[in-house]
What we know:
The protein is of the alpha/beta class and 715 residues long.
Amino acid sequence: MTKKNSQKKGNSKEDKLLAHTEDGKDQFLTTNQGVRVNDNQNSLKAGERGPSLLEDFILREKITHFDHERIPERIVHARGAGAHGVFKLYDSLSKYTKAGFLTDTARETSVFVRFSTVAGSRGSTDLARDVRGFAVKFYTDEGVFDLVGNNIPVFFIQDAMKFPDLIHAVKPEPHNEIPQAASAHDTFWDFVSLMPESAHMVLWTMSDRAIPRSFRMMEGFGVHTFRLVNEEGKSTFVKFHWKPLLGMHSVAWDEAQKISGRDPDFHRRDLWEAIESGDFPEWELGVQLIDEADEHKFPFDLLDPTKIVPEELVPVQKVGKLTLNRNPDNFFAETEQVAFHPGHVVPGIDFTNDPLLQGRLFSYTDTQLSRLGSPNFHEIPINRSIAPVHNNQRDGHMRQTINKGVTSYQPNSLGGGCPYQAMIADGGFSSYPERIDANKVRDRSESFSDHFSQATLFYNSQSAYEQQHIIEAYSFELSKVNYPHIRKRVLGLLSAIDKSLATAVASYLGMEVPEELEKPINEGIPADADKSKYEPRQVKQKSATSPALSMANTIKDSIATRKIAFLLANGADADELTTVKKALEEAGAVVEVIAPRIGDIPLSEGTTTAKHSFLTASSVLFDAVFIPGGKSSIESLKAEPDALLFVNEAYRHCKAIALSGDAKDFLSATSLANAKEDPGLIVQQNDLGTLAKHFIKAISQHRVWERETKRKVPA
Ligand code: HDD
């Protein structure tokens, strides 16, 4: 047998399928030493019924390798999914930076992106209420640049010193390791209620941003203020943004919890399937640029990671596009072993003194040493720079590079002085020479003490339904907190953000809003601190609202990649099914048929194939529902409790529902018997064209959230 499978791998689906099997294709099974294996079923024994022999090197090698297959999961962001892609610049930013990938519009820079949740373990659900990591590795010609961001533009804490405390508080509690992937427990709320600086970010995590519909439908942020540095050495402050072309959308909280049971891999699967089917996820890279001279002109500190720079103050300029176009071939080799680091920068990008960023610059290499086990983690294929690597670092666990020559030191003459240092003009990295004139202190600037103004700005900027979701999220989480004094402290903080928010949450908890912030509100201050300096305060921000902060104002112009459930049974109307299906597919949606059983289902004419039955499908896994008419189909569906639940639940989660022909009759069996038509409940007897048009419009609006207050349906 010869190795036939040596052709270069391309990007087509066939190539990918081949890639998944190519390890073994047309190859003999061997040991790790390349010895062909004759029997992979039986261990070597002293007689057919005798004991196994230590001599069995094949068994021992196989079991030993298996025993060591797991590596420590990430202490945070353990649960994730990744994809390959490219970044393409629109316009050169050479006025601000010398980084090649931000100046050369002819370049296409390869990237690897990993999305994640923060608190849960590697096997936890995708739909936890949590921040999402959004980490991008740019393989640039000048070296690797990592933008290790989140889908929320601010952070819980202002100083890296508090990071282990924050994470210990949010992770499952240490005595019983409960709850998994959830902030709704005592220790998290105990901690954040004592740390008013977390108030802003906690509000974001209680918003719908923390339960995205898809990784493809969320924003990303570099969070910290970074610097761009140009050829002349001039520095400009920069905030990085990722803006999804599909807009920002979320699921409902009840839905999120149900998805966690029905398909804990919901986001991972969504990303994978979109890329496999050629619907490549896209984001635009945005930058907010701030002149060094303007550093102190804002009512907040640019170095404070608990603050945004409102887009109304400094517009986001879109400068390029990220497209994810290839799934990993192997989850472990790529997604699990990828090692990000905010300290991976290239000439033209530099740091600020944000104390959270400064601590991160230490943490990430350190964590790779325990996670990947070796200082050679940069040699793992997914982490390799495409810019050549030459230095005098040597040896260590699992070293791959075979360095030649006798010199591994500098200066040297035996190696001709190589490798030599690069002049700045030759691309040598040189840190921005920021002038520092200060005392060495453990302290923080008073300009960091306004913890509430931007939280208020965020709350004020939300639509009515988004505010209601925030109220319900706090109420849910605090109802799971066992200690009334912790709940009371949170209510105190909420009243500093918005009185009506605090009152609404208090009423769910059966509590009163405390008159004022509990004293001492902040246990988290230094022992000898001047307390007045740490007193949280509120500084009036310029704008009362920032429309960019509300997901209600996002792009809603397409149904591309949305998943539509077609519910039917034997005898469904073929014409209604095909007409509506065609219209939806032409608009880019994905239609999947659900019937009492899978396989071919006879229609009024011909058949259709049901991909799911009610055993495996659930409304929470779809964006919208269509039911074609057909008397016998409707009669069967009416007798199917899971079909009734499907539609009730879709309605409760505010999804578009369309019924054609005599499918209208189906509603009488559901809780929607007397429901009025709304923009997302479309009942059309005759005109399929109009039905499809209205249905597409409704799906593109994502949800009819107003239903939540107008009509509540059990599901
Ligand atoms: Fe972090 C992972 C994002 C603060 C320490 N972080 C990690 C990942 C993301 C972020 C997206 C996952 C990367 C991947 O997919 O492999 N982290 C952030 C953001 C922060 C932040 C946006 C604040 C603005 N992180 C932060 C601090 C520290 C860390 C303050 C420590 C002082 N983060 C880590 C870590 C991780 C990590 C322990 C775990 C796994 C890893 O690094 O590679 O080092």
